[in-house]
Write a structure and sequence with these properties.
Length: 172
């Protein structure tokens, strides 16, 4: 791969590497979490927790979504999170998972990545989150994790026919 192709990644590899190897000082602040659900047993469930500017991730594979819900709730309790501090992708399996969390008393926040953006230069709120996240990455303390590095630096930017900034689909 030539150096110019690196510029088409939303999070260029060099940016991710720099952020992981040279983190900023810790800045205290509120905590929140984001959940990513595995649609199939070979995918990972991901619990991403942020306290101030420090980010940590806990990932696991489990083909049983109900067992994964129990594991997520353990992570919430361990960190003293309230439902209002927790966000997830509300599309696809996320809608089903959110419903089950609500049945268990955890009314977490959902984000549908295909929803309209708050900034009109983006194609969707998902595209906006990816692109704006890349611009602020150096403000966060990230785990020095090769899997996270690969996940962040593998999504390429894209444009719609209306010239709105987007991202390539995971389903290539």
């Amino acid at each position: 791969m030539d150096a110019d192709s690196d510029t088409m990644f939303i999070f260029p590899r060099s940016l991710v590497k720099s952020a992981m190897e040279s983190p900023p000082n810790y800045v205290h602040g509120r905590q929140c979490a984001f959940l990513d659900f595995a649609a199939r047993g070979n995918n990972e469930n991901t619990f991403t927790h942020r306290t101030g500017n420090k980010i940590e991730q806990v990932c696991w594979r489990n083909a049983d979504p109900m067992a994964s819900i129990a594991r997520f709730i353990q992570e919430f309790i361990k960190r003293d999170l309230s439902a209002g501090d927790i966000w997830c992708d509300a599309g696809g399996i996320g809608a089903v998972m959110m419903s089950r969390f609500a049945e268990l008393g955890w009314h977490i926040n959902g984000v549908n990545n295909e929803s309209p953006p708050t900034n009109p230069i983006y194609a969707s709120i998902g595209a906006q989150m990816w692109h704006e996240g890349a611009r602020t990455l150096n403000q966060f303390i990230l785990p020095n994790d090769p899997i996270l590095s690969k996940q962040l630096s593998s999504r390429r930017m894209d444009f719609t026919s209306d010239n709105l900034l987007s991202y390539e689909s995971k389903r290539r």
